[in-house]
Amino acid sequence: MSETNAAAVDTFMQNLQERCEGLFYMSESEYPLEPFIFEVPDAAAITNAEVLKLAGQPQESFLEVVDLPYFLRNQTADVPDADEFIQDITRRFRELQTYMQAQLPDVKVYRIGKHEVQVYALGKLNQTQLAGFKTVSVET
């Protein structure tokens, strides 16, 4: 990777880290959003089987793919009579969603499992890297 590309990746990850800092995905529990990068041979040709492998999950794992706005719909929704703290969290989730959609072509959310769901929001950062955030959604 060239120095220019490495600098662009570093800048992207720093910006993503800042946007994820202090955000928790709310389900039946709360888990932080953790930025990450996966190295892959061809980011444009990623398959569900490769995502399972990258996530360290068995190939027979239940996998659902959704778009980012759908996944974050509860975190970005207006809450009537919300206090200032909730309004700020909602705004930050919206900014994170906008940033990821602008910076990562074809960002998708891979949900692995059924009750303690491992979640990977992934998009193509460049030809050999997928980036985004991971979290957990507890659903019983």
UniProtKB/TrEMBL annotation:
Top-level taxon: Bacteria
Pfam assignment, any one: NuiA
InterPro entries documented for this protein: NucleaseA_inhib-like (IPR012489), NucleaseA_inhib-like_sf (IPR036587)
Protein name: Sugar-non-specific nuclease inhibitor NuiA-like protein
Organism whose genome encodes this protein: Adhaeribacter rhizoryzae
